[in-house]
Amino acid sequence: MKKIGKSLLIIFFYVTYSSLSLIPLILLNINIETMPDILYYLYYLIMQFIFILFLYFFFQDEIKKMLVDFNNKYKEYLELAIRYWVVGLVLMIISNIIISSLTPVELPENEEAVRGLINVIPIIMTSLILFTAPIIEEFIYRKVLYDLIPFKILYIIISSLTFGLAHVLGMASSALSYLYIIPYAILGAVFAIAYVKTKNIFVTISMHFVHNLFTIITIFLMK
Q: What is the model's pLDDT at position 47?
């Protein structure tokens, strides 16, 4: 019961955090619509690190135990992480190809936005993509949901679908864009299965980091 209450609190805070993080700007009478991208995303990066500190406060004992476990089994865990990630990547690429060939939407809108911002503010965006996003998203969509949902299959389904939806919702320009929930959900399912197997958040953070690093390298190579 204590875990469920904590999980619900963290989910609520995560959902409302974007709005809450704007309060300092509002109090300072700063209009975010006129802020330069570099200042807005620098502020966003700082807020993300603050959220990570919040997660550490709630999970510090478990984090320490998982870190010890990861250090003791890092070869096994990294091998598993790479193997699972490759499977997820291949399935994600196949689903992307199928969707882009059947619809006029060649890329999910969030990926297009990320590619554009990397060209404008590469250091800040790389920090967000490689460090804060994997940590926060893995804690929310893997650790917190796992603590909340007692059935493994249901957990994997909800973890994958919410992960996919989070990467499309708010950015989709048409109903067809929501098809891109599928490739993200596939990747999320692979991450969730890896978490069920290892019960260690550092495994899925590693997988997420590798995937995002691969994405960034691909973006720079395609310039």
A: 96
- Host H or E run for residue 11: helix 2-20
Give the residue-averaged pLDDT of 33-40. 91
- Whether the CB-CB separation of 172 and 148 falls below 8 Å is answered with no
> How large is the average pLDDT for residues 206-215?
96
Residue 63 parent element (H or E)? helix 37-72
Q: Compute the average pLDDT of residues 83-100.
A: 95
d(CA 185, CA 190): 9
Q: Show me where the domains of the chain are located.
A: 60-221
* Exposure string for 21-46, b = 16+ CB within 10 A, e = fewer: beeeeeeeeeeeeeeeeeebbbbebe
Return the DSSP state at 104.
S
What pTM was estimated for this model as a whole?
0.94
Q: For residues 168-176, give the mean pLDDT.
A: 80
Q: What is the largest CA-CA distance in the chain?
A: 51
Per the CB < 8 A criterion, the answer to whether 208 and 133 are in contact is yes
The SS3 assignment for 160 reads helix
Angle formed by the axes of helices 152-166 and 181-198, to 10°?
140
CA atoms in the 13 A half-sphere facing the CB of 149: 19
pLDDT confidence bin for 59, thresholds 50/70/90: very high
Does residue 104 surpass a pLDDT of 90?
A: no
Residues 39 and 45: their CA atoms lie apart, in Å, by: 10
Tokens of 1: 């019961």
